[in-house]
Amino acid sequence: MKLLVSKKPVLLSVVIGMILMTISYFFQPLMPFKSIAHRGASALAPENTLASFEKAIEMGFDYIELDVRLSKDKQLVVIHDANVLRTTDGEGLIEELTVKDLKKLDAGSWFSPAYAGEKIPLLTEVLKQASGKIGMIIEMKSPENQPGMTEILADLLNSYKSESQIKVQSFHINEMKKFHKLAPQIPAGLLLSKHLDLFHLASYRDFASFLSVHHLLLSKSFINQAELFGYEIYSWTISKQYQFADMQRLGVHGIISDDEKRIPDSIMYVLITPFLKGQDLIRTLLA
After folding, report:
1. pLDDT in tens, 64-118
2. SS3 sequence of the chain
3. Which of 235, 244, 272, 282 is the most buried (most CB within 10 A)?
4. Which among 38, 180, 215, 253 is annotated as catalytic?
């Protein structure tokens, strides 16, 4: 004997749930935030290039976020990957190439022919470009595997007089502790891809003043706890327009994104947001 279950109560529950979620979403306040251009305005120009950073300045971002690695001749160069293959027309590890080698590469054509000839910049070039125009958040990439990086960066920033606010972050706790000792006047932060408990929030505060957290890990309760210790919280990396409002409603202090917030805070957009989230969830499940 087959048990027949009506689909109507299930459908009704889903509809009611979406309505309640929309109402709840609508009544949460949108908090102001610092806009942080991920690798520059990387949705519109090749990442981690002077063109991308200039675009972020033109768009009015508060900060640019960028990555640094050490070249073979111990220069700080601005690039995300350990290998140049993905974002240039060359191949090879950064640590095995000199600045002269790196400057021969085209770091723009992979993105668009309009950016052909764009070069991998030195950190000193970006500091000069950004000074007085936009803040900077510098991420040290794998400093634990690049001896001397932390010291070289600290020495550079200690001697450099910038008219813009500069912050430094990394996933590596011990290297950020070292950086804070070497350059205590430069705000230091940790990148997080896992939850922190109260013990770690308390212990990291000795050297870190901000936390950059993957957006899926963020909650109001975590942000409230972090604020009790005096942290600023930045979310990374936002790629959907509706996620901006999600982060604002959580109360983050900064949003790291490839593009600027473009969608107005309208009632209509609030009403369709749950459906946009549902579409993204379905795509994720089917991928």
Report:
1. 999 999 999 999 999 999 999 999 999 999 999 999 999 999 999 999 999 999 9
2. CCCCCCCHHHHHHHHHHHHHHHHHHHHCCCCCCEEEEECCCCCCCCCCCHHHHHHHHHHCCCEEEEEEEECCCCCEEECCCCECCCCCCCCCEHHHCCHHHHCCCCCCCCCCHHHCCCCCCEHHHHHHHHCCCCEEEEEECCHHHCCCHHHHHHHHHHHCCCCCCEEEEECCHHHHHHHHHHCCCCCEEEEECCCCCHHHHHHHCCCCCEEEEEHHHCCHHHHHHHHHCCCEEEEEEECCHHHHHHHHHHCCCEEEECCCCCCCCCHHHHHHHHHHHHHHHHHHHHC
3. 235
4. 38
- The per-residue pLDDT for range 231-251, each reduced to its tens digit, is 999 999 999 988 999 999 999
Tell me whether residue 76 is exposed, middle or buried, using C-beta atoms within 10 angstroms of its C-beta: 0 to 12, 13 to 18, 19 or more.
buried
Supply the pTM of this predicted model.
0.86
Is 215 catalytic? The answer is: no
Integer Cα distance of 246 and 116 in angstroms: 37
